[in-house]
Amino acid sequence: MFNRPQSSHSKDRVAYCFNHDAGNFHYGQGHPMKPPRLTLTHNLVMNYGLYKHMDVFHTRRAFDEEIANFHSQDYIEFLKRVTPNNVNNFTKFLSRYNLGIDDCPIFEGIYDFCRLSCGGSLEAARKLTSGQTDLAINWSGGLHHARKSEASGFCYTNDIVLAALELLRYFPRVLYVDIDVHHGDGVQEAFYASNRVLSVSFHKYDGHFFPGTGSLDEIGTHLGKYYSLNVPLLDYIDDNSYAYIFKHVLSMVIETFRPGAIIMQCGTDSLAGDKLGTFNISVHGHGECVRFLKSFNIPLMTVGGGGYTIRNVSRCWTYETSIMANTPIPDVLPENEYMEYFGPDYRLNPPIVDNHLENANSRAYLDQLRIQIAEILRYMETAPSVQMQELPPDLQGFMENGGNWKVDEEEDDIINDTLDYKKRESPLYYKRRDKELTEVHINELYDDSNDQDHDGNTDDELEIEV
Ligand SMILES: [Zn+2]
Fold it and tell me: Which positions bind a divalent metal cation (predicted)?
């Protein structure tokens, strides 16, 4: 039924990238994003003995220069400087960078957290490009909403974009697959005008659910036209429906795009019972997507993402680690330091699915999505840009306008008319672009009138050379 290649006979090598420090951050009282879920996950992975079947790497923090491959220098400098104690000195920059509000608070060690997340994904990508591994994992990555100069949806820096750029140094084409309940808008935006990264996001979409983007008619622009695919789903989708649409779409995508490597964002807020999500998927249903992508024997890295019922986040990423490591593990959880989190069932795949919830995604709806996505892929195949470069170009030039390109509305209208889709109704995606995103000179960061000591430096700032 699906274009699934034969499994390879040799056992895949798996690089598990982790830094214990990543779990030691606190977004603030009552904030749904809880970094300790990474510690919980690592705890289960270790206690199941999965480390025996993988190469475990203690990853380093990303350097500023590495993060600057996507993010603007002024935004990075701001993240480095701002702390909960000095945030009042920087109020005029908070709205510019979308920081300090409920979603993206300033917390202690914010930039260190970013460096750890990015460092892990860069390490995972480099293990793939160097040929040291076939599969790589970084559960502390997957922060898909962050933009070039702006935080969004609990995400400050976009480790996925950095990892994709790293993969593009070696692989001509990279596929990005996102199964978080929210649209992978930050990654889509970064590569919206590129034909070398194909972004496919499965998410809840009703025009209002965060981040408000991800409709079927966001298909890319310029060279990237037809290289962004969105699968807008409705409430309470179950395992069968999810597998049905996921496998159909990815089979078509891989056959057409022929990626050299895949990044899979495994946000677990798509699980049933998530505090923010509205899907009805089990741990096994979520993991089935990983199993399916892995079966193509294409270099694959998985990263984390959302996930706000943290006992289930850690269960799911542990299960998916076992799939990557090709090592079945028992459903009964092993003795571990945090056992009390997993009661009353103490199982890996607990009964989280609610059978009383009605799946709003009918088979007819899913088939319609499938047909429309097949149609976009047909355009992609016949587009001139399908003459794909085999030699990766200079990345600096490649990212010159990355994340800050302007939408050619006229061209988009033509695309939409051609595909006979509902006319774009100025989605939030583009509305948000009207925020001024001009580069900020680093010196500006010193100029705040509230600067306490009037020498341009607050107490705990680092020396920088401008
Ligand atoms: Zn999410």
Answer: 180, 182, 269
Q: Structure tokens of 75?
A: 């935004």
Query: Which residues, by Cβ under 5 Å, contact ligand 1, an ion?
Result: 180, 182, 267, 269, 306
Residue 436's pLDDT is 33
User: Any binding-site annotation on 180?
Assistant: yes
- Distance from C-alpha of 397 to C-alpha of 437, rounded to nearest angstrom: 20
Q: How far is CA 257 from the centre of its chain?
A: 20
Q: How far is the CA of 307 from the centre of ligand 1 (A)?
A: 7
Q: 212: left (phi > 0), else alpha (psi -120 to 50), else beta?
A: left
Strand 55-58 with 228-233, pairing: unpaired
Q: Is 182 annotated as a binding residue?
A: yes
**Residue numbers of the chain with a pLDDT score lower than 70:** 1-10, 383-466
- Structural fold of domain 14-446: Arginase; Chain A (3.40.800)
pTM given for the model: 0.86
How many whole angstroms from 142 Cα to the centroid of ligand 1? 10
448 is in an annotated binding site: no
Catalogue the active-site residues. Answer: 145
The domain locations on the chain are 14-446
